[in-house]
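Board notes (copied after class):
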Amino acid sequence: MKILSLSLLQVFSWCSAPALAARDERVIAVLTRAESVYMEAFSAFQAAYGSEIRYYDLSKGAPALPKEARTIVTFGGKAASFRYPGGTKVIYAMAPGLRLPGTRSPGAVKISMVPPVARVLKRLKEIQPGLMTLAIFWTAERYAPLIEEAGLRGRELGVSISAVKIKTPGDLPAAIRAENGRMDAIWLPPDPLLLTPSTLRIFTSFAWGNAVPLYGSTRGMTREGAAASVGVSFKVIGMAAAEAARKAEAGEPLPDIIYPESEDLTLNASSARRCGLRFSRELVESAEYLFP
């Protein structure tokens, strides 16, 4: 079993690596907050980029950006939503419910927190081989293309997708009950308009009480009660942002959205037992983290 989160060992290994190149302020970073997972992703970004990168903490106020900045890498939704000078390239990460319009940030590039949906569905079939009908709950409109893609890829794997769009959090309990008996599992994308501590408790309570496995898309969702999650680690997000920044500085074309090459599988043993799931030894060994 692999663990991709930052550890003291990784920190020491980075410290013992060759010194970073001198600061070049053509590339800078803006963090929603200079703490927690934002700092974890930024640290991985800086290490992968190979230069000392100046970062700005948006929670401290509007940053005074250097005039020479050409590429701005952001971590967090508020950082991505900040208005940056025209002519700069914005590469934004950890903003799952946001898609910057081309009129506001021409050429903006999003680092996805979700692997390609085909890989997600394939992983869920490995976890639950008998999966036939998967309910996907969502709210943010930007997930509409993902839901459509899930329907197409699901058919290829023999999985019927039931897309349940929730307009308001108050609609959630009735919507879940309406799907009971018609679904084999639930999958939740990282939709900030839908997922709150209270709505996640509604999902986990239903899953545990009705033996319907709940699958998420972040390690935090697994920790809070999902049986498993398939997502992208903050380290991998930072590394993908570094690669995109290097290509932007080299003048190479970039897609509107980048899907990192590797996914982060996390498992929750106690939640799985409540839902009647049994993880194979091979699955556990392939996971990045297993909650007891």
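Comment from the instructor: The longest strand covers residues 133-138. The mean pLDDT is 89.
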